[in-house]
Design brief:
heterodimer, A: mainly beta, six-stranded mixed beta sheet, B: mainly beta, seven-stranded mixed beta sheet
Chain lengths: 111, 116
């Protein structure tokens, strides 16, 4: 099945640093979602994006829907230890029901 | 407390055995989905259902079966035909089925299936 290119695959950062990750696709999407998954748990929705160029924040998290509609970015500011986990993007092609998921960015925060 | 409940949390299957994973939601969502997650990979869609008594195959349906007799329940059976069933299985639901913008998926806590 089709998958998104998500990068980086993993990141090790110091507490307090900012984090950036992104997803790119060969398809145009009309919705982008960002999830966080803790080990052994289901993904939790962080941010939903619906329009090209849209910039949405949720606390220290900010996500953007790329202008080309083929990419999206997630930034985390001033990281803390509980930010540890796997972050997934998911995109949906207009006119379809299915979401396509990225392979995840594994984030580790060093105190 | 609204949400999606998956059970059991851990499940072991013997060779040749069918096992059933439970997914229940009390969010009054129309659509429900089953995904499989393997290490280092994105989620892959097994089956989905947009309405009671109807369901469609996803990308990796072979070796799996589902039913949707009630709006709040969408059980997944991993049959003996699925030769590599060890994975983390995730159930999701969304309030608006199909192609509408508000088709946002929310997930349960998952079931980890292992083969004995």
């Amino acid at each position: 099945g089709q998958q998104l290119n998500q990068s980086p695959q993993s990141m090790f950062i110091q507490e307090g640093e900012d984090v950036s990750m992104n997803c790119t696709s060969s398809s145009i999407f009309n919705t982008w979602l960002w999830y966080k998954q803790d080990p052994g748990e289901g993904p939790v929705l962080l941010i939903a994006l619906y329009k090209a160029g849209e910039l949405t924040s949720n606390g220290r998290l900010t996500a953007q829907f790329g202008i080309t509609r083929k990419d999206s970015f997630l930034n985390i500011s001033a990281s803390i230890p509980s930010d540890v986990g796997i972050y997934f993007c998911a995109g949906r092609v207009s006119g379809t029901y299915k979401y396509i998921f990225g392979t995840g960015t594994r984030l580790k925060v060093l105190a | 407390d609204g949400g999606i409940t998956q059970s059991p949390k851990y499940l072991f299957r013997k060779e040749g055995q069918n096992v059933t994973l439970s997914c229940e939601q009390n969010l009054n969502h129309d659509a429900m989905y089953w995904y499989r997650q393997d290490p280092g990979q994105g989620l892959r869609l097994i089956y989905y259902s947009q309405i009671v008594n109807d369901f469609q195959k996803g990308d990796i349906a072979e070796g799996y079966s589902v039913s949707r007799e009630k709006k709040e329940s969408f059980p997944l059976t991993v049959t003996s035909a699925q030769k590599n069933p060890t994975a983390f299985y995730l159930c999701a639901s969304s309030s608006h089925a199909g192609t509408g913008l508000k088709n946002i998926q929310y997930f349960g806590a998952g079931t980890r299936l292992s083969v004995l």
